[in-house]
Fold:
Amino acid sequence: MFFERAEGGEKALLVHIESLNIHENEDASEFVLLCESAGLAILDVVNVLLKSPHPKAYLGEGKVDEIASLVAGFDAEVVLFNAALSPSQQRNLEAALHCRVIDRTGLILDIFAQRARTHEGKLQVELAQLHYVQTRLIRGWTHLERQKGGIGLRGPGETQLETDRRLIRGRIKSIERRLEKVKKQRQQGRRGRGRAGVPTVAVVGYTNAGKSTLFNQLTESNVYAADQLFATLDPTLRQIVLPGVGEVILADTVGFIRHLPHRLVDAFKATLEETVEADLLLHVVDAAAEERLDNIDQVNEVLKEIGADDKRQLMVYNKIDLLEGVVPQIIQSEEDSAASVWVSAKEKQGFPLLLEAIASRLAEKMWRGSVCLPASMGDLRARLYDRKAIVSESFDEQGQFVCQVAISIDELSRIERQLNVDWQSLVLDIEPFG
Ligand SMILES: Nc1nc2c(ncn2[C@@H]2O[C@H](COP(=O)(O)OP(=O)(O)OP(=O)(O)O)[C@@H](O)[C@H]2O)c(=O)[nH]1
Ligand SMILES: [Mg+2]
Structure:
């Protein structure tokens, strides 16, 4: 990669913008968490009340001067703005503050870059970075100038700029080609799972809600869970077995945040494709967070953006160990299906209830019962075995197979269509779930 990234422990001054509109206001604490996630050493947080951004340097001249003297006083290495800056605003601020300036998009990109682990995740982050840098090329160059010692803020010569632009365009093209290839491979993998009729459950939720912890504990796998935002970037898939349902694929996903820059939503859509294809979403909520209601809205917003707002959700209120007097429980909806479960992922509280709720929600889309298969229907029986849909089997006096079956309704209708069988004529009895 040919971009510099914030080194861990860089001395940072944070500028949090407060809007006059109380509804748009948000707590500086999430911004601080993000900066800590990026590994910055935070010197101070400056709160600025702003009616509307100034075109030149986002803030008014007086404020800029004030921050400049703080930068000098603290000897800050970088200033972070909790706002989206235009390339020229960023440039003007760097000139005025005599240090590097990073805006919210740059910060999030930096965190993504640190967290990306898989090939695809890394490619996606780099693509987003390239698009971001493309418009800020002059600024990128001034960093190199700065490394030589001076605060030379003049842009590079026209030729150098042209070369850089061409390099970036070429790199973007090549990454897009590679991503296309990776995506195809992944889709094939997913089609494979779809064919096997294994239901997929995607764990989604606001960043830091405890998705990876829950995922880990449930699968007893070893996904990286840490007290940092975006501890996960790539969906991680594991298989679990649920009583009455059979094999289920569980997918951990990247945390959602508010004001996710639109460019990033696009870039990470592919990463979230598991979510779009899932049979059920586990929407994990940090029940101890003050902004939990707003966080739920934000997650639903992003789900809408990636076209997954019609997915069925099971709400999982996590971290009940931090709440007084709350015990693990399932709350039923009016239609009598499990609507939410209260658990503690960390303390492994409420897991039997959670598994039960997942199974019952998946069972809404399952067919369960026994069928009688004459010897002539060997292909159907083989197909059911292939889908791991046969729970148990015995013979009757006529030498026919009597099979107990659990299979997703979608998969069943596919089989009926493809093998041209009349399922109803084979049914001995239908089992209610429970
Ligand atoms: N007290 C308490 N802390 C929890 C619980 N579950 C998770 N945590 C903590 O919350 C923090 C975030 O957990 P993660 O599992 O990384 O959260 P995440 O939703 O995967 O976060 P991102 O992947 O960054 O979006 C960690 O410090 C966890 O230890 C819980 O049930 N109780
Ligand atoms: Mg995670």
User: Anything to note?
Assistant: Residues 158-195 form the longest helix (38 residues). The domain at 199-363 is CATH 3.40.50.300 (Rossmann fold). The longest strand covers residues 41-50.
